[in-house]
Amino acid sequence: MFTARVLTAIAVRSRRPARAGIVLPAPSRPGARSLNPAWQQTAVALFLIVALTAGLCLYIYQAAQIHATGQEMVGLRAEYGRLQRENSNLLAIYAAEQSLARMMPRAAAAGFGSAAEVRYVSVTPTDGAGTVVRPSGLRSSGQP
Q: How far, rounded to the nearest angstrom, does the alpha carbon of residue 63 sit from its chain's CA centroid?
């Protein structure tokens, strides 16, 4: 009889899993409050909803900023084109004002006229001036 019990115990032990793999619930203490699993699921669901809402708000904010920056760039490009056209017009007006046909009457009204004769003035160096090359001593780049 003793051997039958021992053999039965050995057979039962060999079928049982190891105790390290068994997870038992913690014993409840008197006065300890445990949360209802429904409340835990509700809390997790609310947290996920808040996190998703915050993520969507961030996405919408970034998209709005990108759109506003794009619109600002379109406006700046339009202003740049307008300023280029205005600059071209001003350059054309400046060139017309500086033309010889416009300058001759203005110069005549101011008392200027064409040069009748050309005079060259020679200048001699003063004390303290460095070496002066006379015009006869100059050579052009084509001469040896």
A: 16
Token pair for residue 132?
Answer: 């002066």
CA 12/CA 10 separation, integer angstroms: 5
Asked whether the beta carbons of 1 and 8 are under 8 A apart, the reply is no
Instruction: Decide if 28 contacts 34 (C-beta within 8 A).
Output: yes
Per-residue pLDDT tens listing for the chain (144 residues)? 666 666 666 665 555 555 556 666 666 666 666 667 788 899 999 999 999 999 999 999 999 999 999 999 999 999 999 999 999 999 999 999 888 888 888 888 998 888 888 888 888 767 665 665 566 655 555 444
Phi, psi (degrees; rounded to nearest 5) at 12: -70, -40
For 23, 38, 42, 57, the CA distances from 27, given in Å and listed in that order, are: 12, 21, 25, 44
- Locate 2 and state its tokens: 């003793």
